[in-house]
Amino acid sequence: MRNAITRGGTPSAPGTAGPSSWRRAALAALLAAAAWTAAGPARAQDPYPARPVTILVGFPPGTATDTVARMLGDRLAQRLGQQFIVENKPGAGGSIAAGLGARAKPDGYTLMIGASAPQAINPHVYPNLNYDARKDFAPIGLLTWLPYLFVVGPDNPAHNLNEFLAAVKAKPDQYTYATTGVGTTSHLVTSVLLSKAGARMIHVPYKGSSQAQTDIVGGRTYATFDTMVSSLALVKAGRLKALAVSTPERVASLPDVPTVAEQGFPGFDMGAWLGLIAPAGIAPPIQEKLAAEVNAVLADPAVRDKLADLGAQVRTTASPAEFGALMKTEYESWGKVVRDFKVKATD
What keywords tag this UniProt record (predicted)? Predict the structure, then answer.
């Protein structure tokens, strides 16, 4: 048998590869490694979102925050081709969800519905929050403004806000009012109204709107100031009676319900905002993309009409920076209300 001869005359054992084969194998390995390295950045730059996105909501199902979050999530899913899954984490006026959101990975796959309570009120009410509302979140975009309705049970004899307040003032600390929790917008709006009226009621905090409203319908508590989104259907069904709306003008969905300002409290204008936020550190391109998609969803006439029917007023911001400035202003103004009324988590 003839010996295998490599170029250069150096013999090699039969059945083994010579140096030329080794070179070819090494070159192939290098090319494969280069291809893998080049593919890495491409995978890292996959279009966002490449998998389902979670939206944290700090309040129970059926609340205004939850309703708006689910509508937004459905529309974003249609536009972006991935699921946007609403995950309810109620408690402490939205602070439980805020803490989870603050600690989430800032990759765009955990978002949160920011709201007046967890972002602007709770930091002044709860002394040991596990998040910093001013540092731990990145703004994306404003979603809605939520008018509040003052409602009582269907059998309550009061026909308007002043009749109800007259009854309360005749029996100080004998009537109870429900809210969605200590330090929530519901609590503070009611506190401001009672202070202006010189009336005293007993505060009964609940974990959400549905429980509070059930007890009002059943006569176990007397009144609540809650969002129109949470209250409107029950008012239209006759299960709750609306005595006043918190906005300066009457709302189109309940044109016969007068404002608080009309009933002897000029300048009364209170409500809550909802917006989409992310953990601080989110990549600016993802932040900007989400902001543009949110505004595109809210520009849809069908979405605006549906939110209006629910009692929410669509409001948007031109950029994440504009929304961030609004959040800062809200933080400062609600802090003053909390200090003025000495609201504490133990109330």
Answer: Signal
Other beta carbons within 10 angstroms of residue 327's beta carbon come to: 23
The predicted pLDDT at position 183 comes to 81
CA 216 to chain centre: 26
Residue carrying structure tokens 């909390």: 338
Over residues 214-227, the pLDDT tens digits come to: 999 999 999 999 99
CA dihedral 155, 157, 159, 160 (to 10 degrees): -100
- Which of these, 335, 315, 297, 339, lies nearest to 134 by C-alpha position? 335
Q: Report d(CA 296, CA 75) in Å as an integer.
A: 10
pTM comes to: 0.77
In this predicted structure, the answer to whether residue 148 has a pLDDT above a threshold of 70 is: yes
| pLDDT for 68 | 93
DSSP 37-103: HHHHHHHHTPPSPSS-EEEEESS-TTSHHHHHHHHHHHHHHHHHSS-EEEEE---GGGHHHHHHHHH
Handedness of CA 279, 284, 285, 290 (dihedral sign): positive
Q: Got the DSSP string for 13-25?
A: -TTS--HHHHHHH
Return the sign of the alpha-carbon dihedral for residues 54, 58, 60, 62: negative
Q: Over 90: is that where the pLDDT of 77 sits?
A: yes
